[in-house]
């Protein structure tokens, strides 16, 4: 998150208060609001911008629409893969069509009849060979033909059993796994497609629009900067003016721009960087004076408080 800082410095405000006779226990601060950059997760071309600067948004409101041909192609490819895997699974579960079953049965009958004829022929050739009527080469040729016919018969029988009984249990499980994997690819591709719709991540206000319709943006580009609701008051406090301030303390404040007073509750106290400290002199008993950043929220709500407004704090 980024923090919006006004151009007016604390030192100038405090000096102005001192010149006008402001009591010593008075500090000047300002209102701040956290900024959130709403970025695109995928590259694409802006084809619609649904918001304007200053619009109030609720979480989930549509901000912009991107066009990405690559993402659309990936979605279609993933859907096609799922359809193919699902078709294979249905085929495995239902088995072959009637026409395929009839063809398989005819092929089996042909292979069976052929094997029976070749087997009888081989038996006759083997008997003649044993009687010494033919050569070993002729016997080997007949035996080879018989073995081939038997293999063809076994193949035809296996194919007929498969089309009649469907795929085995292991094959069905494999097909189901392929369908699940294809479905996950579709979900992944669709999740990227959903990222073409840029939505508000929180309730807030549009501070700045950083892209224009027709512009091609890269992944991570901040299309819009939003302000979180609930501005808070921030002021700097020297260590010498700390006076035992602690978290949860309530301080009286005045907002000149709104012409009203109220209270803030302190929720954050932290030392600033070393450059914000006051260097001590060489006098005995002196020390470096640190400066602390203090933040508080109005106890009665925003009521028109805007980032950058000056706030007068006293305690």
Characteristic key phrases:
315 residues, alpha+beta, Elongation Factor Tu (Ef-tu), domain 3, OB fold (Dihydrolipoamide Acetyltransferase, E2P), 3 domains, 6-stranded antiparallel β-barrel, 5-stranded antiparallel sheet, 15 strands, rod-shaped
Summary, kept brief:
The protein has helices spanning 10-19, 69-94, 98-130, 136-165, 169-194; strands spanning 2-3, 26-32, 34-39, 44-49, 56-57, 62-67, 197-199, 204-209, 216-217, 222-227, 232-238, 250-255, 260-271, 291-298, 310-314. With 315 residues, it is an alpha+beta fold. The longest helix has 33 residues, at 98-130.
Characterization of the model:
- The structure is a single chain.
- The protein has 315 residues and is of the alpha+beta class.
- The protein has three domains: 2-33 and 230-314, Efflux pump adaptor protein, beta barrel domain (Elongation Factor Tu (Ef-tu), domain 3, Beta Barrel), CATH 2.40.30.170; 42-66 and 196-220, OB fold (Dihydrolipoamide Acetyltransferase, E2P), CATH 2.40.50; 72-191.
- It is built from five helices and 15 strands.
- Helix 3 runs antiparallel to helix 4 (136-165).
- It is rod-shaped, with a radius of gyration of 42 Å.
List the helices and strands and how they pair.
Blueprint (H helix, E strand, L loop, with lengths): L1 E2 L6 H10 L6 E7 L1 E6 L4 E6 L6 E2 L4 E6 L1 H26 L3 H33 L5 H30 L3 H26 L2 E3 L4 E6 L6 E2 L4 E6 L4 E7 L11 E6 L4 E12 L19 E8 L11 E5 L1
Antiparallel strand pairs: 1-3, 2-11, 2-15, 3-10, 4-6, 4-9, 5-8, 6-7, 8-10, 11-14, 12-13, 12-15, 13-14
Helix pairs in contact: 2-5, 3-4
């Amino acid at each position: 998150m980024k923090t919006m800082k006004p151009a007016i410095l604390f030192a100038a405000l405090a000096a102005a208060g001192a010149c006008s006779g402001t009591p010593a226990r008075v500090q000047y601060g300002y209102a701040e609001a956290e900024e959130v950059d709403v970025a695109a997760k995928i590259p694409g071309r802006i084809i619609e911008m649904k918001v304007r600067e200053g619009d109030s948004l609720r979480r989930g409101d549509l901000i912009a629409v991107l066009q990405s041909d690559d993402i659309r192609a990936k979605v279609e490819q993933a859907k096609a893969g799922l359809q193919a895997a699902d078709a294979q699974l249905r085929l495995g579960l239902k088995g072959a069509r009637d026409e395929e079953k009839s063809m398989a049965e005819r092929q089996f009958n042909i292979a069976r009849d052929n094997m029976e004829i070749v087997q009888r022929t081989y038996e006759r050739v083997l008997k003649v060979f044993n009687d010494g009527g033919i050569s070993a080469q002729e016997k080997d040729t007949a035996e080879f033909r018989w073995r081939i016919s038997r293999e063809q018969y076994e193949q035809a029988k296996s194919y007929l059993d498969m089309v009649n009984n469907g795929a085995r249990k292991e094959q069905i499980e494999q097909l189901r796994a392929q369908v699940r994997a294809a479905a996950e690819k579709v979900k992944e591709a669709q999740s990227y497609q959903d990222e073409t719709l840029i939505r508000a991540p929180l309730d807030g206000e549009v501070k700045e629009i950083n892209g224009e319709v027709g512009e091609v943006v890269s992944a991570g580009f901040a299309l819009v900067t939003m302000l979180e609701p609930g501005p808070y008051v921030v002021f700097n406090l020297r260590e010498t003016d700390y006076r035992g301030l602690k978290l949860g303390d309530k301080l009286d404040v005045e907002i000149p721009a709104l012409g009203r007073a109220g209270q803030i509750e302190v929720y954050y106290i932290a030392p600033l960087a070393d450059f914000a400290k006051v260097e001590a002199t060489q006098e005995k008993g002196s020390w470096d004076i640190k400066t602390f950043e203090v933040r508080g929220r109005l106890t009665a709500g925003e009521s028109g408080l805007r980032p950058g407004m000056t706030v007068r704090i006293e305690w």
